[in-house]
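go over this chain:
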Amino acid sequence: MNILFLIGSPRKKSSASCYFARILKFFLTLGRFGKIKVEIAEIPPKAAPDIMTKLAAADKVVIFTPLYCDGMPSHVISFLQQAEIFCRQNPCSFDFYAVCNNGFIEGRQNEACLNQYQCFCQKTGVNWCGGMGIGGGEMLHFLAKVYPFVFLFFIVLFVIGLFKGYSDKFALSQLAEEIGVYLFFTWYCYFSLARVAAKIANGKTLKKNIYSRAFVPAIIFMFFASIFMCLGSLLNGRIIFTLLGKDKTPAPKQI
């Protein structure tokens, strides 16, 4: 079975979309030993003739995109327009799935975008098999980048203790605690991705779109997400008051 993963985030390999693609690929190939071949390709900002040939050869296509204003990024829209023309001229018979993630905590915020992918399938005649919406996608991606260093830190502490002739129970207990915290935040998303992987591997359609999220109360998420966004704006050289100020771009002259 040939499966094509399409990454539709402008940030490409550093994006949350690519992170979720790698997780889904892990679940798809786990224990199947070469029965499933997964290829990951990035949607380019302009014409994509090489990807069109991959579409024709794929048994299943899974697209991963962030949510931009209740929709998909503009270059993904352009790509789907090309794909629609291609599939009309070259009959495509692949099954189509979509995985959307957003910065809000509610995975259902992706519903409108998933409906747009369904409309694309109806226009091109390919089989729409459902999708998944992930809330708190940026948070989950951030945790996946930070927590390995946290785990490594306590492992190093434990190893140093062994070299000094004693067992550092504090390091072990802290390591177990941090693993537990990480799994608490992420288990719901991982479980949902595993469900999607099982459907894809067995050639089944999702009866309903699956909506998942970071497993954290919304009020706590909003507090820390606000801090994260403010720090992010400062680190990128933007002052918060500038973001909240009026647009000083001069209006276009009337002809």
